[in-house]
Amino acid sequence: MSRASNQRTMPHRTRKGEARDLLLYILAGVGAVCTVTVIAVFTKVQFDPLFKWLGFGIVTALVFGDTIRANRRHWKSRRFWWLLAVFFAVQCAIGIPVLWAATKVPAIYWGAILPLNYGVLAGYLALLLHSRRA
After folding, report:
1. How far is the C-alpha of 128 from the C-alpha of 109, rounded, in Å?
2. What is the torsional sign of CA 127, 131, 133, 134?
3. Rounded CA separation 129/132 (Å)
4. What is the pLDDT of residues 43-67, one digit of tens each?
């Protein structure tokens, strides 16, 4: 095995590393719940507008974050980052006006939009990232 191919392999995760990651996820979740609780108790924020934008942000972060994580081998490819940027721009160009016009977006809609968004992005990348250039 050459040195270059050896550097691209993912290091083996240890139990200590997994426990640390789990603790960080728990702390991030607790922090998010505490933040929302403080906003709910100590401010007069209207939650319908807040949650529609929060939902859009969370769905976008989950879809793009997982896609970037899952495509580690393409990180050095400019084409990969360009395709992600184009998809992000299209998502924002569609999502922002729709949310701006909507008065309320129920949480169940985000549950349907998340896998749809992820599937469209995965298909888009599979089609365009792996297509041969003419």
Report:
1. 28
2. negative
3. 8
4. 776 667 778 888 899 899 999 998 9
